[in-house]
Amino acid sequence: MESGPEVNSGSGAERQNKQSSALRELMDGVERVSVSGAANPNILSVACDSRQVTPGALFFALPGQKADGNKFVFDAIARGAIAIASPQPQSAEIKPGIAWVELVPGTERRALAIAAANFYGHPANALKLIGVTGTNGKTTTTFLIDSILHAAGFTTGRIGTTGYETPRGSRKALNTTPESLDLQQMFAEVRDAGGTHAVLEVSSHALAMERVWGCHFAVAVFTNLTRDHLNFHKTFEEYFAAKRRLFEGLGAGAPDVAVVNADDPYSPRLEGLAKHTLRYGLSETAELTTKSFSLRFDGTQFTAQTPAGKIEVRSSLVGRINVYNILSAIGAAIALEIPRAKIEQGIANLELVPGRFQQIDEGQPFLVVVDYAHADDAIRNLITTARELNPSGRIITLFGAGGERDRSTRPLMGEAAGALSDLVILTDDNPRKEDPLLIMNDVVVGLQKVNAKYRIEPDREIALEMAIDEAQPGDIVLLAGKGHENYQILRDRTFEFDDREKARAILRRKGYSKQSAKK
Length: 519
Fold this sequence. Notes:
By secondary structure, this protein is of the alpha/beta class.
């Protein structure tokens, strides 16, 4: 989901205080700060988006990938900012009375994270943080851990791709892991409501951009590592190095417990970094494992062998990949000393994860599944799961590749889908400002490499109907790429589009209904 948003668009948070905070107190712990202008004004709010500035604010002018926050300093001042934090020297044009905090270049985001924690009273220190990182499985794992914590009676926050949840309510996710200022605000909401835990997906972007700097994690979970986000990280080793930072510690000490996938080749490079490491998986080296498991369309059952004893798993989540996700969640729960009965209850309580192998049932004689898989390994896992569950039926896979992302992964997506599907419907995902046909041409290279049977239909809604029209009794239609997303991003506009709702509407138009299926 991460895209490296522009500094001045969509990233920012503020708190209106009854009590003010002195500027120098907010900058306590920030490297080699020099302050000019007003000596030590009282700060009423903090923002890193000039549009979020209110009177009495400290504005962080951060350099970004697409925009430089320093270009919005005068806008922030016009909106009432009384202090500016920037890596640039103070301009002579800045009017007297404005405090200027000159930051060490390259430490701007770390400075923001420290100031945000200071502003909100270090809320993370009052919580047990559970961070989940990896390429695939982060969202499902956080949902599982959160469900277990709720079963154990805890008040929590959950932060990730599908949205941000705190005791104060839910909000749309702009990034998998929000900016540090927003993150500290959410931690404060959990703390102030008497909460004790926060579970969050920690993306490689967030780690590289130090959004979680200064946060100590009680548990850090590693799911797996496959190719993704190389448009941002440039090399696979750089991508892994970003993930590794969660286990090395982020200015607040290494995690208490690392829960790592023993079956992933990168896990050995994470072991020994945390105070304790617990390995899960299906291999002989895993301390947390299962000898056998039952995979069905209505769920998964197995007995987990754990250092805390046997745990009976009954889950509505399906597929081999969710065996791994469940084991990782059990590992986190054991690290948090949750009783086994509560772990079992929490796993059983979670009925679905939005847009993750989400079945669309309108009484049709074939299965329709919506899934967020949007990279080659995720597509491979999705189709393999479907094939394991239904080895005799056909697999029809619809997907597209996102625009303004790593082009090199597109042929790999085509190759994975084409090699494992009986038919591929290639369509738009979120082309953004790229030409959709050029994106699809990149994917076709992989489809042709494996002599796949495929069709191209750029209009996603028409493509959805095409895929459903192709289905025969016993088949599986996989609608991949968008999952929980309810929008489509084109060059000139963003509009409402939800694969789940579109699929339901198409099925109903074709005369299917749950009621008629029961008769």
